[in-house]
Every structure is written in C-alpha cells, then in structure tokens.
Amino acid sequence: MARDYYGALGVRQDATSEEIKRAYRKLARELHPDVNPDESAKERFSEVTAAYEVLSDPQKRKIVDMGGDPLGNGGGGGGRDPFAGFGLGDIMDAFFGGGGAGGGRGPRSRVQPGADALIRIELSLEECNTGVSRELTVDTAVLCDECRGSGCAEGSSPQVCDTCAGRGEIQSVQRSFLGQVVTARPCPVCRGIGEVIPDPCRQCAGDGRVRARRTITAKVPPGVADGMRVRLSGQGEVGPGGGPAGDLYVEVVELPHRTFERNGADLHCTVRIPMTTAALGSVVPLDTLDDTVELTLEPGTQPNTELVLAGHGLPRLRSTGRVDGRGDLHVHVEVDIPSKLDARQTELLRELANLRGEEGHVVASANGRGGGLFSRLRARHR
C-alpha cells in the first residue's frame, strides 16, 4: 500500500505548494525533537518530513497522484508498487526503454531553514503575576560573520560538482522485465546540492553558520503558568547555508509559593485565627500578591469557612496573549483551639460555659441518635 502523504500533512490532494509548505512548517514546529521530546512525536516528525520532501517535489508528487510511492523500495513482488523509488523519468524509461537522459529531481538548495530551540526559565508566583522582562543567555547556531552564510573563503565561490555535473544526483542503469530502468540517488560528493566548495570558510568550515553564545531579552506576559511557552520568532537556530532561523521557545517553570497555592487564575491560602476572634469577629489585614486588604471575619465564624475575595487572584491570560480580567483569592479559615490554659483562663472559660449552659453539654447529631456520617448512613439502610 502506498503511504498517504497528503494525510500525513493534513492537506487535500489539490493543495497548492504554498499550502503544503505552511502545513509542514506548522507540524514541524510542534513535533521537532528540540521542542517535543516525546518518542511518538519524533516518529510523527519523520513522517511529515518525508511527506513534505515528496509533495514539494513536482515529479515525486506526480508519482503519488498516479498511485505510486516515491520513497518505497523498487521491485515487482510482494504486492509493492513496482515503480516505487523511481522518478517520473525512470518510469517512462521503464515503459519505453532509454538511457540515462531522463530528468531527475535536480539539486537541492544549500540554504535550509533552521531548527527551533527551547530554553526554560524559573519564575516566582509574583513574577507570573506581573510578567517579567528577562535577559537570557542562549547557545545556538548563528550566521557566520566571516562568509555571511555562503560557506566560501573570501574571494572564492562554489563550483559545479564534477561527479554529478551539477545535477545533485547520480544515475545507474538496471535491466528489468520492463526494459532498462534508470535509478537515481543523491550524489555522495556534493550531498545532492550540485555544487562543492573547494575553498571553505575557515571559521564555519563551509556550513555558513557557527555556534555562539548570545544574550536576548524575553518578555513574559502577566498570567503565565507552569509549562507555558513564549515564542520568540526568528531567535532559534540559523539554518545550514545561512538559512532562516527557527524560533526560540521560552518555557516557564513556576516555583512553589510559601503562602499561596494556584489553581488556574485563582489563588488559595489558609489563615489561622484564635477561637476568640472566631467568636467575636474582627477585621484583620491580609497580604495579597499586589497589596494589603482588610479581611472581615463575622462574629461566629466557623472552622473551614471559605471567604472569596473577587479579583485578587492572577491575571487571566488568553490564548491570544491578552489579559482578560483576574481570578479570585480563596481564603480558608482555620480556628486555633488552645491546648493549654492557665488557671485564670480556665476559670473564665468555665464561667462562660456556665453562662451559656454548655458545661458538660454534648450536642447531638442531626439524626438525633449521635454518631458521625457513617453511623447515619448505616442507620438509613437498616
């Protein structure tokens, strides 16, 4: 079965070359091993790269549209496509005979797009709240300043490869039951480019790029969370031959906070108050990420009470990069019961208990028979 190259890129069979290129660039940025280390993503990246190589070549694409597989193995057995692996000129030679004059794929460009890069930065919760501008040191491939990407030493230029005569491939003739079949493979001398550099640049050894450490500024917007990535366009690896640079992805690693726990744009914290404050009520100061607010505790505040302060959470960051409102701050109240009392405190509490008629008093459960939740559940099913 021929592979579904159109399906691998998610495009229609009548897609234009520009649509195929856009689909490949989108998938490559999502699946590149430098961005997505998952093993399944690595396999998928190989599939979409092979599909783009085929569909971006007009002759290979014609083979696909005829039901063949340009990347398959040749031969007529085993149910495989007998023309798999041959160019369009090879198929014509197979039917009508002929020599090595059939058209091949042609040389590929020395200039190739660069890969994306990934760097991680640690941010505190306060920095996630306000956003930061951080100076980052990155080590990537950059344009060679000696040859400006050409790969040639000063005063020299590339020359046509003598082995393949500039075609970028070499051909061999084989006989089959169909006649003469001309097969082609990339030239091992020029690696399919069709040109060689006799006098390469001393600084980049003919690659057109060198590795260098540089400092860039990354602006991280308010509201980012752990695992989010900020894309810096064109700040990744420069491609071979001085090709266009990929993107740099800055991944956020959010550090734990001593007071607040995060749930999306909402924050949660716990405050402990004395039992007298819970009984009498009070207004206490509470530090948030932005300022200090007054927290009102009503008289008779019970343990595990949750108070919500609207708009005192984190900015809500939309997928477009815009901030749309803020989350809430959830305050969980715990009542501190003293474990030790002196004589005077004990006397005063006993006096209060007597005044309220609570000394030695046991409050019955809701079903009137005592016991906890599981006791009530058992009683319900008797």
Give a topology summary.
Blueprint: H1 5-9, H2 17-31, H3 39-55, H4 58-65, H5 88-96, E1 117-123, H6 125-130, E2 132-143, E3 159-160, E4 169-176, E5 179-186, E6 195-196, E7 209-220, E8 229-232, E9 248-254, E10 261-263, E11 266-274, H7 275-280, E12 282-287, E13 292-297, E14 306-309, E15 315-317, E16 323-326, E17 329-336, H8 343-355, H9 373-380
Parallel strand pairs: 1-9, 11-17
Antiparallel strand pairs: 2-7, 3-6, 4-5, 8-9, 10-11, 12-13, 14-17, 15-16
Structure description:
By secondary structure, the protein is an alpha+beta fold. Among the domains are: 1-85, DnaJ domain (Helix Hairpins, Orthogonal Bundle); 257-337, HSP40/DNAj peptide-binding domain; 344-382, no CATH class. The chain has nine helices and 17 strands. It has helices at residues 5-9, 17-31, 39-55, 58-65, 88-96, 125-130, 275-280, 343-355, 373-380; strands at residues 117-123, 132-143, 159-160, 169-176, 179-186, 195-196, 209-220, 229-232, 248-254, 261-263, 266-274, 282-287, 292-297, 306-309, 315-317, 323-326, 329-336. The chain has a four-stranded mixed sheet with strand order 10-11-17-14. Strands 1-9-8 form a three-stranded mixed sheet.
